[in-house]
Description:
By secondary structure, the protein is an alpha/beta fold. It has helices spanning about 10-20, 50-55, 80-85, 90-100, 120-130, 185-195, 210-220, 230-240, 255-265, 280-290, 305-315, and strands at about 1-5, 30-35, 35-40, 65, 100-105, 105-110, 135-140, 150-155, 160-165, 170-175, 200-205, 220-225, 250-255, 265-270, 290-300, 320-330, 335-345. Strand 2 and strand 3 form a beta hairpin.
Amino acid sequence: MLALKVPKKIANEVRKVLIEKSLMNLNLKIKPESDFVFIPLDEKLHDESNLIEIMTDSGFHGFETVDTEFESLKRAPRSMTEYLKDKLNEKEIEDLKKSFDIIGDVVILEIPEELQQHKKIIGEAALKFTKRKAVYMKSSAIKGVIRTREMEHLAGEDVSETIHQEYGCRLLMDVKNVYFSPRLATERRRVADRTVNGEIVLDMFAGVGPFSILIAREKSVKIYAVDINPSAYDYLKRNIELNKVQNKVIPLLGDVADMVSQEKIKADRIIMNLPGTACEFLGVAMDAIKEGGVIHYYEFSSDYDTAIKRLEDAANPRKVEILEKRKVKSRSPGQWHIVVDARVF
Ligand SMILES: C[S@@+](CC[C@H](N)C(=O)[O-])C[C@H]1O[C@@H](n2cnc3c(N)ncnc32)[C@H](O)[C@@H]1O
């Protein structure tokens, strides 16, 4: 291996120049010998005159190049890609990285069937490179009325309760017992921005409160936040306190259809973030929306037409004006979690 023989006392200066000019082999150990050191040169260096010229320009003269053996430098992998490169190909690693959800101190991964044999090392890599406390793997689809999934612990502590920070809100939750997606943050920001001071808001499927709490922290409003999952309701109450919005958010446990009639709720704005089955609650929403009020209606769909038609049918004989429509996030190829904002009058 080609090396530059350099007097020890200026070795550090020379090393810096070689690194800066990409002329040093960083995978090998510099070798000392009496008053000299041998600095390994990059394997791609074929033209020694170029090296001499660079060294002369940097004020160093009269070094000789020699052929010698070096020890390899054992260094820890610096990235998740490097850590997993012997087990997974580049595409598999990139796909895995896209599957990461980070909620507070918890990382949640989706590992495809063909990579299950490597799940522990993938979990360790995720722990190491995200610097979070716990790593879980999704082990079932989201299911049931309360929209939760099974999770398998892979690495770090087996602690699934955490505090997630989003736009200044602190959201406490147990990721195993409640639904929460950090990928909806931009949508929550958008809905909070659309909300007007003085409004009464109904968050029909509130979960641990991410929509309600963000709106309440920023606007002068009254919000009814409803959820049917006792665990989500419990965290919702704690999050209301944690974010000091007790005077704005009213937590309610139960089926939103019952809550709307029981509390006689009439709202200027309704959030219907239950994309799989929100359509079944459009009648409840139409009963609760005030004249000129706005509904943020969510669905899983490949287009907006079905959602708009459902809104129009449910509003009939009243009319709806479509204010905005957007893709919130991708669900599966060709399928989106969409939102349509409609004014009812
Ligand atoms: C998709 S999650 C949305 C949670 C929250 N909005 C968020 O962004 O994290 C839907 C929530 O609706 C709740 N839910 C389902 N059916 C319900 C019903 N009939 N009445 C009230 N809440 C319901 C579930 O427990 C779940 O927490």
